[in-house]
Amino acid sequence: TGASRRIAVFGAGYIGLVTGACFAELGHRVVVRDIQPERIRLLNSGEVPFFEPGLGDLITRNKERLAFTLDVEEAVRDAEAVFVCVDTPPTASGDADLSRVWAVVDALRGASHLVAVVVKSTVPVGTGARVRAALDERDLGHVGYASNPEFTAEGRAVEDFLRPDRVVIGASDDAVARWVADLYGRLDSPVELMDVASAEMVKLASNALLATRITFINEIATVCEATGADIGHVSRAVGLDHRLGPHFLRAGLGYGGSCFPKDSRALRAMASNSGYPFQLLNAVIEVNELQPRRAIQRLKTELDGLKGRRIALLGMTFKPGTDDMREAPSTIIASRLLAEGATVTCWDPMAPHTDGRQEPWSSATRRPDPLGAMTDADAAILVTEWPELTDVDWTAAARLMRNPLLLDGRNLLDPAALLSAGFTHMGVGRGTRRPR
Ligand code: UDX
Fold first, then answer.
1. Which residue among 90, 152, 167, 373 has the highest number of C-beta atoms inside a 10 angstrom radius?
2. Per UniProt, where does NAD(+) bind (predicted)?
């Protein structure tokens, strides 16, 4: 097992680059193809187009086995398998836009030497069957097809890929399934073989269940606020039940990112399209959209209105350890605050500078450090749990603020410490505490 293979990866985004670099690390020869000239130029000059820990090193370390190109021919010519890692953004109807997947399939015309086409992109159940039919129509009937969804989380993608909880492979042909499994041969992780539709479903089900868990604990947090319980104790003790486990029980301002919001909406759309209203998932999506708005509402009540108030946002990215702003709760929070007539100052160590181009951040003032953002503010909202925020001198912050009030949207900080620093402290799922 674990023979060295030649692989073409279509798409040099998060999934494609991590897949390409990690397969190279596992000893395979990989050509990554993308349609964006700038992206390929960057990669060829040794740069990574986005931040992902360890990815740059991995690419450098394996550069002998890794090439980047715009050219389909060059990518496919010597490849034994093509991995489809293009993005599948939502369309107006909420369905996944598969046009990039189809563009790859079209580009494979004549590639009859391939052993397999493998889709890693997140796609609706049934896509594999349609790709299979399209391959057959293009005289590629003997080329195998497999679904091989990816479960890597941003910020730990390389580690997740090289030490996965499981590798999921869906194929109708056993030989193809084993061939794909063999690519991961050097990893010591369980391989789950199944049919294509089930593999497609695993990805959607996993993300929807994780989103549901987060949303469940967020709703418990709301009940805690209303009843005087403390979500910190509740989450911890609930998570100690071995049947539940401790992960994804952190209450906060709602999930964001490139996967959970998109994939849960795609699964809902998929269910609706087949005439089944996925009510539980529907509720999850609604509650998650409400979550940041609820926080704003609490703050509005506490400050007796937001008009003319200066609010500091600590953290902008959808989670720490990434520069990714996709579906970040901070965006909703900033635009709601601005709509209420507040002034917004913000800090984030990694969010890209938008040069004032992108709403709502164009109307927010960015500061290079948290204390700068909090100066003269009427309240601060901790939006992203950046570890840097635990090192802030909160006593100094309290003095710099017009009104030392912190809404800790991720329950990162110790309420007692904030209280003794002179803050009024609001957490998610715990009551408001005021200094004496
Ligand atoms: C996720 C999945 O983890 C990954 O398997 C999938 O392939 C892609 O989507 P990612 O979006 O990178 O990965 O981030 P993740 O760390 O899972 O967090 C997602 C969101 O949930 C973040 O906004 C985070 O703040 C939030 N979250 C997570 C909570 O609010 N509470 C938690 O307990 C955990």
1. 373
2. 34, 39, 88, 122, 154, 262, 326
ipTM over 0.90: yes
What is the spatial distance between Cα 182 and Cα 197, in angstroms, rounded to a whole number? 21
Please indicate whether residue 216, judged by its CB atom, sits closer than 6 Å to ligand 1.
no
Centre of ligand 1 from the C-alpha of residue 216, in Å: 14
Q: Over the stretch 342-401, which tens digit does the pLDDT of each residue have?
A: 999 999 999 998 766 678 888 999 999 999 999 999 999 999 999 999 999 999 999 999
Q: What is the CATH number of domain 6-194?
A: 3.40.50.720
Rounded CA separation 128/176 (Å): 14
Q: Check residue 183 and give left, alpha or beta (phi > 0: left; psi -120 to 50: alpha).
A: alpha
Pocket residue to mutate for ligand 1, from 14, 19, 167, 210, most atoms within 8 A of Cβ: 210
Atom 16 of ligand 1: nearest residue by CA position: 153
37-80: pLDDT as tens digits? 999 999 999 999 999 999 999 999 999 999 999 999 999 999 99
The helix/strand/coil state of 405 is strand
pTM for this predicted structure: 0.95
Q: Where in the chain is the domain with CATH 3.40.50.720?
A: 6-194, 260-433
The domain 260-433 having CATH identifier 3.30.70.260: the answer here is: no
pLDDT at 116 over 70: yes
b/e per residue 210-242 (b: at least 16 CB within 10 A)? bbbbbbbbbbbbbebbeeebbbbebbeebbeee
